[in-house]
Design goal:
It is a single chain. The protein is α+β, with helices and mostly antiparallel strands. It folds into two domains: about 30 residues; about 140 residues, no CATH class. The protein is built from three helices and ten strands; from the N terminus they run H-H-E-E-E-E-E-E-H-E-E-E-E. The strands form two sheets. Strands 2, 3, 6, 7, 8, 9 and 10 form a seven-stranded antiparallel beta sheet that branches. The chain has a three-stranded antiparallel beta sheet with strand order 1-4-5. Strand 8 and strand 9 form a beta hairpin. It is globular and about 45 Å long.
Length: about 180
């Protein structure tokens, strides 16, 4: 009765449906690929509850010894047994180190400047340093050492410190 037209119409419709599904899948994959890791992806089993060890301050960090000592006295803040002493390093800048609450070892950190103001006015003011007691993930939203502004994700590696796992730089027009 259709003379082959019905079959052609069905094939065309199915091709369109398949194309739409492929596009949706590709968009979902691309979106997933560019999204930042979640704190639960780097979960730790336990959080240290004991008294924090005194930090072993190296000559490089001697200048900031008071801020490091005071920050190291806090309850665990990061990756199961670390604190993150931080202090200002200028307008819109924060510097930090990571202190092991069990051994007292001090891992190097660095200064992080805020995102450029014109970008923050448009997109909001993100927290510069994000971390949690039950996660090894450390997120930086800003400009490490005042360059290459963007979103950085690090993993705390036992005995080594922060390891970069992902970065997403801001477009050139949003840099300093």
């Amino acid at each position: 009765m259709c003379g082959g037209i019905c079959g052609l119409s069905y094939d065309l419709t199915m091709r369109k449906v398949m194309c739409v599904l492929l596009v949706i899948g590709a968009l979902g994959w691309a979106q997933k690929k560019s999204s930042r890791p979640d704190f639960k992806d780097y979960a730790v089993e336990r959080v240290y509850q004991g008294a924090p060890a005194a930090p072993k301050i190296t000559p490089d960090w001697r200048r900031f010894r008071t801020a490091i000592r005071e920050g190291a006295k806090r309850k665990v803040q990061f990756a199961g047994h670390y604190t993150v002493p931080a202090w200002g390093c200028g307008a819109g800048c924060v510097a930090f180190v990571i202190v092991d609450s069990i051994s007292g070892r001090v891992y190097d950190g660095f200064g992080v400047a805020m995102m450029p103001f014109k970008r923050e006015e448009k997109h909001g003011f993100p927290i510069q340093l994000e971390f949690q007691p039950r996660s090894r993930l450390f997120k930086i939203n800003g400009c490490p050492d005042e360059t290459n502004c963007g979103f950085y994700d690090y993993e705390m590696v036992e005995g080594k410190g922060l390891k970069l796992v992902r970065k997403e730089l801001l477009p050139k027009e949003d840099q300093y």
